[in-house]
């Protein structure tokens, strides 16, 4: 099926729901889904955004700005995510427990606002990685319209560019908990360390980047073309000094570079 046909299938699918609450993080996929839902359903769509220590503050600001610019009603739900039993211990199925708690809250909010369904933005490429959160999506009956339409990440970026969405070339996002090796306790302090480190690298022009945390060591993953610059003396000294001031004892550069789900490689 051609990309344009997939988009028509997506909007037709959304129209059949009659009204929908979109789980909205401000990333590439959820922004595209929210825009498509707005096109298909008009005012019968709202954005639901979870505010928690797993969600970088600058991303929340961007999500709010997009909804305001598009005239889309947004409900921001403050969530004490680390109070979910066992989540701080970061088990290998952490994402399942987190998604289940968040989406149950989203379903409740959707019902309170008279909306027929809750939709999330996973695409068909997400099937290639270990994503226990998708089990929660299936159990709770959360809709995944982009997957149903057969849309890939590349197609979503292409369509986003044609639609003039500012996220079309935005680096891929994932919650801050994904930076922790499984079994390492998640704390507010360490989440803040990771968030500040990634914000610094982003401000320095390193777009697609991850700072994985192993105890007090930061392992930086960047795109292959960025590795040489990261290794330049003045750059690495600036990064090392900053990350040490944030609380890291060691700073390492991963020679394999950026890849999604690298913490799953030990499973």
Commentary on this structure:
With 267 residues, the chain is an alpha/beta fold. The chain contains ten helices and seven strands. It has a four-stranded parallel sheet with strand order 3-2-1-4, with helices on both faces. It has a three-stranded mixed sheet with strand order 5-6-7. The radius of gyration is 19 Å and the shape is globular. The two termini are 35 Å apart. The model has no long low-confidence stretch (mean pLDDT 94).
How many helices? The count is 10
How would you state the average pLDDT, rounded?
94
Compute the CA-based radius of gyration: 19 Å
Oligomer: single chain
Shape assignment: globular
Largest sheet report? 4 strands, parallel
Helix content: 40-55%
- Helix and strand content put the structural class at alpha/beta
Short synopsis of the structure:
The chain contains 10 helices and 7 strands.
Please give the structural blueprint.
Layout: H1 3-17, E1 20-23, H2 28-41, E2 45-51, H3 57-70, E3 73-78, H4 94-112, E4 117-119, H5 133-140, H6 145-148, H7 153-162, H8 188-203, E5 209-214, E6 217-222, H9 224-230, H10 233-246, E7 250-253
Parallel strand pairs: 1-2, 1-4, 2-3, 6-7
Antiparallel strand pairs: 5-6
Helix pairs in contact: 1-2, 4-5, 8-10
